[in-house]
Amino acid sequence: MSKIDSLKPIVALCKRRGFVYPGSEIYGGFANTYSYGPYGAELKKNVKDLFWKTFVHEREDMVGIDGPILLHPQAWKASGHLEGFNDALIDCKDCKSRFRVDHLIEDVLGKEVVGMSLSDMTLFVKEKGIHCPKCGSKNFTDARTFNLMFHTPMSKTGGEEVAYLRPETAQAIFLDYKNIIDTMRVKIPFGIAQIGKAFRNEITPGNFIFRVIEFEQMEIEYFIEEKNWEKTFTDWLSCMHNWCALIGLDPNKVHEKEHSKEELSHYSKRTVDIVYDFPFGRSELYGIAYRTDFDLKRHAEFSKVPLEYTNPETKERFIPHVVEPTFGVDRTILALLCNAYDEETLENGEMRTVLHFSPKIAPVKCAVFPLMKKEALVEKAREVYLLLKKHWNTEYDEGGAIGRRYRRQDELGTPYCITIDFETLENQTVTIRDRDTLKQKRVAIGDLVPVVQEHLQLDL
Ligand code: GAP
Question: Which one of 20, 225, 241, 312 is at 20 to 30 Å from 207 when CA atoms are compared?
Answer without folding.
Answer: 241
